[in-house]
Amino acid sequence: MRILWLLTPIMLFNAAPAFSATSYLQCPVKDEKGKSAVNVALTLNEDAGTAAIYFQETGYSLEGLPATFTPEAVRWEKVDDLLHSRFTIDRSTLGYVETLSVRTKTLMTRKGTCTLSQPREPKF
């Protein structure tokens, strides 16, 4: 019984995952026709279960979206009254897929391959 009591704090502190909480990715993406090229910056936080996406050409961003992290992929979506945006990153190939739909009709799908990036050192 004493051994279990002594090991309990060790077991509790070793429950944390052995990976970085936040990953930054840069993704040049295009639509199915090879047009509509945009650069996408992603921030994925597995510990918090969130994803943020920033479209560099327009300055549009979506932050703090709930994301699902599996060993194979990270998935998240943004749903409002009319539009439904779905995002997926393949964790082994870093392949990016974004699908924009209105109700059940797909308007656009963009794909690309991401690269891991490091955040810049803040100056202040």
Provide a brief overview of the structure.
With 124 residues, the protein is mainly beta. It is built from 1 helix and 9 strands; from the N terminus they run αβββββββββ. Helices cover 10% and strands 56% of the residues.
Task: Report on the architecture of this protein.
- The protein is mainly β.
- 10% of the residues lie in helices and 56% in strands.
- It has one helix at 2-13, and strands at residues 22-31, 38-45, 50-55, 60-69, 73-79, 83-90, 95-102, 105-113, 115-117.
- It has an eight-stranded antiparallel β-barrel.
- The chain is globular and about 45 Å long.
- Mean pLDDT is 85; it is low at 3-18.
Descriptive keywords:
mainly beta; eight-stranded antiparallel β-barrel; disordered N terminus
